[in-house]
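Hey,
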Amino acid sequence: MFRCILRFRFPVFIALSLVINASILNATVLPRGNAPKLVFAHFMVGNTFPYNVDNWKKDMQLASSKGIDAFALNMGRDDWQPSRVADAYRAASGSNFKLFISFDMASIPCNSDGDGNLIRQLVRQYNRHPNQLMYEGKNFVSTFGGQFCRFGTGSLNEGWHNVLKRDMPPVHFVPALFMQPPELERLNALDGAFSWDSAWPLGNYDINSSNDAQYQKYLKGRTYMASVSPWFFTHYSRETYNKNWIYRPDSWLYASRWELLVKNRKNIDLVEIITWNDYGESHYIGPIEGAQPHSESWTNGFDHRGWLDLAQYYITAFKTGNYPSIKKDRVFLWGRLYPKNANTGDPIGRPDHSEWTEDMLWGVVFLTHPSHFEMTCGGSRYSSDLPAGASKVKMPLRDDCNVKAVVTRDKKKTVDFAPAGFHFSKNAPFYNFNAFVAASPE
């Protein structure tokens, strides 16, 4: 049966602890210096128990169509997960889509040298596979966590060096270690680092690039992989996984973070989207499928694929350095369906940091030409003349109401969008801080 791997998070809100062209990726080896900017999506293998090869193919085709180059296969210790990873590599065969394993060290033990055998085995198994991501001519390998791993040695650095660099095929190791950036400087077993918690503001403030700058400072030219995420809400009871909090999603988090990545692209080698399918933390951008980690109550009916469409615009800009021209008027809208201060009988309780967010409708409007834009919900109304290109818009949500958006140009409506299900209600059945996401048709 499917088993959910609990990924314990660290107290990051206290301090920092803790479309590329297909032809570019035809070459398995990407030489450093000439390597293109790449974008990955973090993929929870733990949610794929019922998957088959066709499921993987559909996800890869969808991701590739939006400019995503590879899946970071987050793999835990369940004995069935290597089979799903094998299916993923099989599904990718014959395509230009790439894969690499992100070992979930919140799940995989790492106390003894023998604990490293699973990692060594899988790296060797997919070494030089046509769809294995190679970077600087080496197998690209990442992690979620692993800052406590010694693998029977006397230090973190020696432990990872013995597992991935001793008698192994060449590995380019870029883990997400939850530790202070200055500590990265002394870890020569690392070829770079992935800054997981740079995706969200870790307090009640807007997203910024401060974490990126700290990582870049102490990596001293090694590979820097930045993170981007549209949301974070998890709602597990103390009797289950004891995870019940939000990170601040306001001020157009997803769009604003992407804008920072584009602005600072010269200092960023790679970007990983968190995530394709982590339903338990509400930051999925792919379809809701597979096996959920007991998160159905806050994810069912909350499709996030509008964020995937929106990401394509920013992915192109990150890779090329230029925002693409808009080919069609489109509207992207997202927000919660219930007020943050609603009172419910939910026994799990209100999520921590709920006071950090506003009851707001967030949007990005794509326009081919200057137009008038209006959105409404009950007594709330936003109306403005917007320029061609992409514009960010917002509007308070106060009343029981249905969201609607209209684009008018030359007295004609080019978009008349009333997304089904986007109903804001003051009466919340429980504390659901997941986002409802809607995008007008392509």
